[in-house]
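Quick log. Single chain, no ligands specified.
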Amino acid sequence: MTKKIRITQVHSAIDRPLDQKRTIRALGIRKLSHTVEKADTPQIRGMIKKVEHLVKVEEIK
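-> predicted structure:
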């Protein structure tokens, strides 16, 4: 069974580079404090690594 992770945006993407803004949108996050659940894959982990200073990540058991 695939593990899942919960991603929540905790800091604003205003005044951030365009690639970071696009990564936030690609994760499905629409606004501050918005939370999404994604499968824990290497691709998603790479996207999180790029914006780790803007999001909070929790593993879902």
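The mean pLDDT is 96.
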